[in-house]
Structure formats: C-alpha cells, structure tokens
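STRUCTURE:
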C-alpha cells in the first residue's frame, strides 16, 4: 500500500469546510472569476490564483524595484520583491494561527505590489498629477493582473489586492485584512533594519515607546506584532490589532516618515526620480507609437497607456530608458 495520498481539489475544499474558522473564506464559496473556467482537478481556486501571480512578468520585475533606498549599493537592502515575500510569510503565519484561508492570504500578499511604480512611493507622487485624485499602486496592481497581464483571478483575491492599502475602504474578507496588517508589519520592521544598516538612523534614535512595547528591532518586532493581531482577533472575532501595539506602530511610522522616508538628505534623489518618471510619461504621451503592444490596451487613451508602461518599469530600466531618450550621446 502506498504511503502517499492524492489530495484532489474536492478533498482540499472539504478540509477547508471542516478545519477552517467560521469567519474564514472558503474557496468553494468564491464569487468566481470574470471569465468562468473549469475548476482545476487538484488546486483550489485560491491556490490556482497564487500560482498564476507567481508566474507573471510583473511579479518578476519586483526584484529590481525600490522599497525605500533608490539604487542601493549593498546586497542586503530590501527590494520590492523581498518585501513581498516577507509580507506573504507574515500574512500566512497569521492566517495559520487564526484558522483563516492560508492560500487566499498568500495570493493577496503575493499580488499586492505588482503594480508598484519604480522608485518606491516617490513614483506614486510622480504619477498622481496625471490622474484624477491620487495614483495608487494598489489600484494599478489590480489593473496589471486584470487588464495588462490578465490571469483571470478570483474576485476575493482582486478585492484583497485592491484594498490592501489603508487609504481606501477595508477589504471584504478577513484574509484581505491580514494582508493590510502584514504589509505594515513587514515594511516597518525591514525599513528600520535598512535605515540602521545605511546609518541613516541609530538604535538610540528609535522611539522609546517602540522599544518598550515591541522589543528589539526585526525578529522581536515581527513576533510581537503578529501576536498582537492574532490574540486580539481571537478576542474580538474579527481581524484587528491590540490597541497598544497599533498605537506604537503609528508612532514608529511617523518616526520613519520624519527621519527616513522624507528626510531632507533624500530630497534631491527623490526629485531626480520624480523628474525621470514625468519625463518618461510626457515622452510616451507625445509618442504613443513607442509604447509596446503589451501596454496598448484598446479602451485606454494615450495618457493611460503611458502611465501603464512607465509604472511597470523597474528602477534600472527607467533610468536606462531616460538616458537613451534625454541624454545626448557622448555626454557623461
């Protein structure tokens, strides 16, 4: 008799019904996809979505997109890809502890930043004048996976990706809320680590409240914040974080904006990044024929196509393209 078993989709779906928490999102209860498909014989709908996101070109480009430090020289600084993997690990750990759907959480976390612009959040600032309101990478991530590189994801995955940003209304599933917390837990911990490594801040600069409540940076912080979500969510019956830790996260976030993200020393580099992006967008609006076919969506105008193309660029590709277009040959 074989020591292996075959876990078909039906078996996995039954295990979700039997083992997950009442609040969890079951894949068999998904609202479905834009284009109906035959179910996979082995994977659940959310497992299938996770795999599709991993194989997109947009996901691969994250390895050359900035998290905080633009064009860092060291090998150990966080990129948008390593950030995404850390968000996924944190999100899946919380989903496992809470009996929520790990595969749905993983799919949302893996896809949450695929629409991010080059040069981190500086890129969002650069693109906002071209749209009504504010250009949001969360909306662009949905556009990438639904329009530009369509992989026909489940409604719940797209909803979680769209709503992972704290700037908009909450997601419809508890797994989407886990991604919101996992994103903030991951970026605060690794951004502090990178800032310490770059000597932008010192350990003694960190807010005393953060050290008192969260412990030492990195692993202590991650564990403390995960427990603060898990314990409080069990207590409240919905995905939330313990108030004291949530307040401390906000204190730490304010500190990072003042001392790291918006520090005066970084402004020349940020202004350079904004200029690169806007020069490129303006160029491709004026020369729409130069936009690659993969970004020439039928119902998009020239501005949308230019934004789609430029926002999808990696940092290094944007810099090379800008040099070729705007730097005369022979000039260093």
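SEQUENCE:
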């Amino acid at each position: 008799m074989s020591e292996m078993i075959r876990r078909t989709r039906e078996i996995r779906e039954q295990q979700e019904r039997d083992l997950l928490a009442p609040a969890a999102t079951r894949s068999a209860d998904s609202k479905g996809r834009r284009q109906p498909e035959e179910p996979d014989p082995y994977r659940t709908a959310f497992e299938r979505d996770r795999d599709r996101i991993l194989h997109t070109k947009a996901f691969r480009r994250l390895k050359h997109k900035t998290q905080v430090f633009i064009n860092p020289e060291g090998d150990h600084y966080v990129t948008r890809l390593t950030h995404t993997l850390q968000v996924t690990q944190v999100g899946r750990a919380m989903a496992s502890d809470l009996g929520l759907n790990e595969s749905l959480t993983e799919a949302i976390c893996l896809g949450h930043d695929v629409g991010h612009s080059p040069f981190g959040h500086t890129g969002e600032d650069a693109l906002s004048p071209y749209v009504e309101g504010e250009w949001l990478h969360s909306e662009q991530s949905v556009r990438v996976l639904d329009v530009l590189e369509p992989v026909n994801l489940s409604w719940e995955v797209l909803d979680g990706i769209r709503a992972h940003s704290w700037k908009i209304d909450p997601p419809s599933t508890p797994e989407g809320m886990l991604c919101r917390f996992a994103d903030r837990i991951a970026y605060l911990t690794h951004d502090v680590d990178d800032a310490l490594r770059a000597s932008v801040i010192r350990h003694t600069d960190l807010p005393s409240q953060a050290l008192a409540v969260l412990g030492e940076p990195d692993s202590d912080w991650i564990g403390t914040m995960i427990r603060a979500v898990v314990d409080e969510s069990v207590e409240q019956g919905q995905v939330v974080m313990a108030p004291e830790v949530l307040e401390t996260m906000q204190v730490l976030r304010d500190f990072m904006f003042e001392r790291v993200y918006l520090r005066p020393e970084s402004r020349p580099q940020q202004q350079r990044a904004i200029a690169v992006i806007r020069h490129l967008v303006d160029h491709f609006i004026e020369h729409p024929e130069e936009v690659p076919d993969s970004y020439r969506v039928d119902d998009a105008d020239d501005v949308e196509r230019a934004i789609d193309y430029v926002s999808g660029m990696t940092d290094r590709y944007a810099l090379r393209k800008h040099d070729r277009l705007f730097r005369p040959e022979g000039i260093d």
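REMARK: Residues 44-265 form a domain with the Hypothetical protein af1432 fold (CATH 1.10.3210.10).
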